[in-house]
Amino acid sequence: MFEKVLIANRGEIALRIHRACREMGIRTVVAHSTADADAMAVRLADESVCIGPPASRDSYLNIPAILSAAIITGADAIHPGIGFMSENAQFAEMVEEHGFTFIGPSPEHIRVMGDKTAAKQTVAKAGLPVVPGSDGAVDTLDQAITVAAQIGYPVLIKATAGGGGKGMKIARSEEELQQAYQLARAEALAAFGFDSVYMERFLDTPRHIEVQILADTHGNVVHLGERDCSVQRRHQKVIEEAPSPALNDDQRRQIGELAADTVRAIGYRGVGTLEFLYQDGSFFFIEMNTRLQIEHPITEMITGIDLVREQIRVAAGAPLGYEQDAIRFYGHAIECRVNAENPESFLPSPGRIHSYHAPGGLGVRVDSALYDGYRVPPHYDSLIAKLVVHGTSRNECLMRLRRTLAEFVIEGVDTTLPLHERLVAEPDFVNGQYDIHWLERLMEKDA
Ligand code: ADP
Question: How crowded is residue 1: how many other Cβ atoms within 10 Å of its Cβ?
């Protein structure tokens, strides 16, 4: 097992990884920017190294600085966390070239799955159904018009490098397509540095259902069930739950096994998530994330498996040590993503926290790096806390969620807590009847 792990990330996820390492007897080094010198993970880690100024490109995306930090501290492995370097194949390669273990999949798997058209082709070959769309990238407007005529309007233009819902535009007709195509390319270029786009049929009422996979380097693969992440705003997840209220046990087992078989077929290692849209009883693969997901705690709550611990173990070459039959699903879990944002305008709200009280009690978990007096920096993602609640039934989970949301105090910055309080009381949410467009429809009604 590793003796020392360098955590190349920040915020709640850096803390989450530190906690797993500590429980495994592994020492930690947190590589941080100057803006994060007072972060909770930096305070708790065995060591910390400042790797640059606040701007991510100069610190959390600065490969030479991260590698130097690993060299001078004598770390054995680097955990990239979520976002930043976690899906950068070149980084993974360089980590290995410098003699460290990258806690994640092989660079080849990151590369293939990072190109969303290559990812779709790869999983389709392994037997997974995919959303109908272009065969690969769509390089000209003429080609886009031809493809749209074949798959039928409405269509969605998506960035092949995609992530965070960026570079995605809907076109409902050929007239709309002209503009949407150019806009998607421009947005893709700005966000990812490449303007390559592809096209899919736009589904009107799907749910977003994703399957958690865990694979070791000895050919063992298990799935840890699904998460329903359909409550979204601008293609970004807001609330997630496991299991999905839309699936029965047979459907759950089928999609889980199909996902596990796919991952086995491609020889993947580590944790990974296969994302699907689910509509009218059918699943359509959209993408695979080759890293930990923000919403991983709900899976941990219903399986009792520590995903970060397992991720570190398999990266060190350890066998899983259990098979699918050993995995038990128990109860229901829901996560609310709490952002430092105005709950109506969604404008970021950085600043100093002058009062913080996290809820507790049976079945309650708060993943957050906040503390009284902490200053939320303006430079990064606005996620500041994940409220995760477990109950023996969905109803118990909902009652507990309402109780904990009412107890949660975060003062000094605006947060999305009031939005969550409202959403979990909406009859459609209570009944589990929502799709990926539900939240935006609800907000349009308000406007
Ligand atoms: P990203 O990598 O940017 O997160 P995804 O491909 O995972 O992009 O899609 C993000 C979200 O966009 C999905 O969860 C879903 O809400 C929406 N979406 C993606 N593809 C489609 C589609 N073909 N039809 C309708 N909505 C889609």
Answer: 12
Other beta carbons less than 10 A from residue 219's beta carbon: 11
CA of 62 to the centre of ligand 1 (A): 29
The segments of the chain whose pLDDT lies below 50 read none
Tell me the C-alpha distance between 405 and 394, whole Å.
16
Which pLDDT score is estimated for 167?
84
| 403 belongs to the catalytic site | no
* Domain contains 127: no
Residue 414: give its domain's CATH number. Answer: 3.30.470.20
Distances (CA, A) of 269 to 105, 144, 220, 320: 5, 36, 9, 11
Phi, psi (5° rounding) for residue 270?
A: 105, -160
Mind listing the pLDDT tens digit for each residue in 2-27?
999 999 999 999 999 999 999 999 99
Percent over 70 (pLDDT), the chain: 100
Ligand 1 centroid to Cα of residue 101, in Å, is 32
Residue with tokens 């100057």: 34
E strand intervals along 34-125: 47-52, 77-79, 101-102
Residue 427, number of CB atoms within 10 A of its CB: 7
Query: What is the number of structural domains in the chain?
Result: 3
Query: Average model confidence (pLDDT) for the chain?
Result: 97
Asked whether residue 117 is domain-assigned, the answer is: no
Sign of the Cα pseudo-torsion (81, 200, 227, 438, in order): positive
Q: Which two tokens stand for residue 353?
A: 């926290």
In angstroms, the CA 106 to CA 281 distance is 34
The Cα–Cα gap between 210 and 278 comes to 10
* Residue nearest (by alpha carbon) to ligand 1 atom 6: 286
